[in-house]
Amino acid sequence: MSDPMNVLAPEHRRLRIGDAWRDAASGATFVVEDPATGKTIAEVADADVVDGLAALDAASKAMAEWAATPPRKRSELLTATYRALTERSEEVARLITLEMGKPLAEARGEVAYGAEFFRWFAEEAVRVEGRYNTAPAGGYRILTVPKPVGPCVFVTPWNFPLAMGARKIAPALAAGCTTITKPAAQTPLTMLFLARIMEEVGVPPGVVNVVTTERAGEVVSALLADRRTRKLSFTGSTEVGRVLLRQAADNVLRTSMELGGNAALIVCADADLDVALDGAMVAKMRNIGESCIAANRIYVEEPVREEFTARFAKRMGALSVGHGLDDGVDVGALIDEASVTKIDELVADAVNRGARVLVGGERPDGPGHFYPPTVLVDVPEDARMLEAEIFGPVAPIISFTSDDEVMAKANDTEHGLVGYVFTRDLQRALRFTEGLETGMVGINRGLISDPSAPFGGVKQSGIGKEGSHEGILEYLDVTYAAIDLP
Ligand code: NAP
């Protein structure tokens, strides 16, 4: 197979600003590594504030014309992006795997998921509507006019290098906004490739700008402080989200915040255990566990604890670990050494407090950032991994005996992104859906991500929704006109 880097020519490993692909004004660059080998795979431009503001100049200049572009035309450009991504799926997937580490099959899944945002919002672009009605007391009419919010700043994480950007860029463009995306420093290549694809299909200059940088703090601060920026959409940790919310407040920006999670996955004794096992494997191991919606705590009702645990541990132990580009690999490399160390420490902490390791639990020697699929039982309530986001292939199993008890434990966290419930009892499922303090619930399903569904959290997992019809509303303001008509 050819080198996955061949798809992104050296001239496109630079900043995408307006109609240009250009170096950072300072000439600085930084390296991108393959997390499975630790080897350098590319060098990209390292933007500073000057470059960030140049991207905002471009986005601001392009704003009026893009907003005035007929919705059908905008829609067609989004459809063309969907088609191009789908046709080039294999190239994009290999690039994702190379810079992020996930197995190729998962990367292909991410391309399909990411591309679908463009198709979905191509369909939404032509369905933005206002209202016209008579004021209740009569005498005048009320007209609502949806308008694009304006230039948007996007900050995205490394765990889904395509999809997390697609989820923002597609609705923004559909609504008529222009964009500046700052991808994670560890995975900038996929976003540059997306910008290249969007240039090729004819998206006008200035509508999609991409600024790669290792100086996220200063570049993003400058963008958020500039009055021309009208919206921030951030996906990443709750910790950084809080910092950016404070900065956004100074400029009273519209914000969408997709932050961290601490999902409880609840297996009731009446569940179909085959379904629960499939669901738990997906919810835990999709994306090597490096997902905001990963099952972080698996609660199993006492009567089925033994059987579920034995079968789950067997499946976890059978997964193969290796370079994501190699055939047959289920579990690729984690993003970096810090991630492996953090997970190792969480496992050691749980074991020190009395947990038992059934599978895995020992980091391997050798290059690359690997950690084996790991299952822990008898995990005490004070184990740090029940509070922290594990973000890796480690599954703590905890037993429960009543719905009230497990509901209280599931909700005992600052996070509120998603919960999973496995039961054949409809009323029980609905009680959990109503009682879980989360933005999303998977019922007898471990996979809930879908561009046509509103994705987002409550509590400290975020603000706003991505995907679905709600997704485009995040990029629209409403002007109301009072029209005198006695
Ligand atoms: P992160 O450390 O918060 O980084 C996310 C992005 O923010 C990166 O682009 C990062 O740039 C940038 N950043 C970091 N510090 C910044 C600052 N002071 N000012 C401006 N930007 C800053 O998160 P991550 O480790 O990449 O991603 C994992 C986290 O994302 C997890 O907590 C996960 O749950 C969350 N996540 C949430 C969702 C959701 O939809 N709710 C989806 C996916 C992931 P650098 O790369 O240069 O540091």
From TrEMBL:
Matches recorded under PANTHER family: SUCCINATE-SEMIALDEHYDE DEHYDROGENASE, MITOCHONDRIAL (PTHR43353:SF5)
GO function terms (MF aspect): succinate-semialdehyde dehydrogenase (NAD+) activity
UniProt entry keywords in alphabetical sequence: Oxidoreductase
Record-given protein name: NAD-dependent succinate-semialdehyde dehydrogenase
Sequence intervals crossing the membrane: none
Domain annotation Aldehyde dehydrogenase: ranges: 21-479
Organism: Planotetraspora phitsanulokensis
GO BP terms in the entry: gamma-aminobutyric acid catabolic process
Family: Belongs to the aldehyde dehydrogenase family.
Pfam families: Aldedh
